[in-house]
Amino acid sequence: MKYLPLIFIMALSGCVSPIKTFEKIPPGIWRGVFLLDRTPVVKYGDDRDIVKKFDIDSEVPFTFDVIYDNDTTFHIVIHNDTERIKVTDISFNRDKSTAKDTILINFPVYDTKISAIYEDGVMEGDWIVNYLNDYKIPFKAVHGKSDRFDWTEQSHVESVDGIWNCTFGDKPEDKYPAIGTFKQDKDRVVGTFQTETGDYRFLEGKMLGHKLYLSSFDGAHVFLFTGLVENGKISGTFRSGSKYIESWEGELVKSAELRDAFSITKAVKDKMEFSFSDTDGKSVSNLDPEYSNKVKIIQIMGTWCPNCMDETVFLQDYISNHKNDDIAVFTIGFERYKDSLKSVESLRRFKDRMQIQHPVLYGGYYDKQTASSRLPQLSGITSYPTLVVTDKSNKIIGIHTGFNGPATKDYNTFIHEFDKLIGRARNNP
Q: Is the pLDDT of residue 67 over 50?
């Protein structure tokens, strides 16, 4: 089957001339929705299904561009506030059994994918998490929709602009602090939540009267925050994927602080010592002769973790901007596959995609108890990522828990503090 091509036209001196045609999915803006509580209505080409027939309190919307590299190859760019995520691992084929055109959008670093049928400007299928057993969320996208939360602007909306001192969790033993920082322009809201284990990255949304809606999709997580705003207070729900739900509340304040990320994880032994296999099966230790007389940066992470990805980007930039023979970097990955071969393959893909030159090591299964037992020099692994810096004799100089990245107000402060920490490690007698 060959579609009627999408034709871009331009007016020039009273003439209209075609520029280019496309035979796969149409280029330009798309609005996607993840449906957390129900399956989509299969009715291709009717974009009203997304807007009017689903519950907005269980929809996670996002927008993305389809951009053609040539007549047959295209990529997508996902939008979350100012963040742009380019995805190139895409295949477009015809399913012979159904006579439908299919699109597969892979997020190889996070080991997830979108598998969908395409017809008449609509994609419909599922977002699938490969490392979880039968985990999928229904997905639908419509071409030509640019508004993330697709509703008419309200005559009056509450303001959430500013800093919010928040608490997440339902049971007393599960509660944890967070800081919400938002900017609002009319009904549009952007911002993020910072916690002591990391931030929720770039969130984007709207106010609908007294109700706040924020969403994010980065290939690894599907996030939806809703909240009811009244008299400088807010209470709502946080949903991560189709299964995780918790409540949250907050109060508008002038300023708020979390615990210092360098004070949460403690060193229970003076010196760091580890030995793990790299992605080629070679045993690597920080005590190996080639790393003697070097400051060590040890990143404890998982390839499934977007905060870890943000930290990896930071480390890559730091290394390239501070090239010095007296620094060695190690990444130790704790993965969500119990099959070690699959876990190592995830780390190998991560290393290749990120073009990492330093050792990437397999630490084990991702549960924090396992990670803590593998690294007994630390008081415990409470967050991915956790970053350890030692001096040239492997004495622990600093431990940073979590990562509040470029979506947060503290990112530049962290860069400055990290630089000072490396200086202390380098100059430690």
A: yes
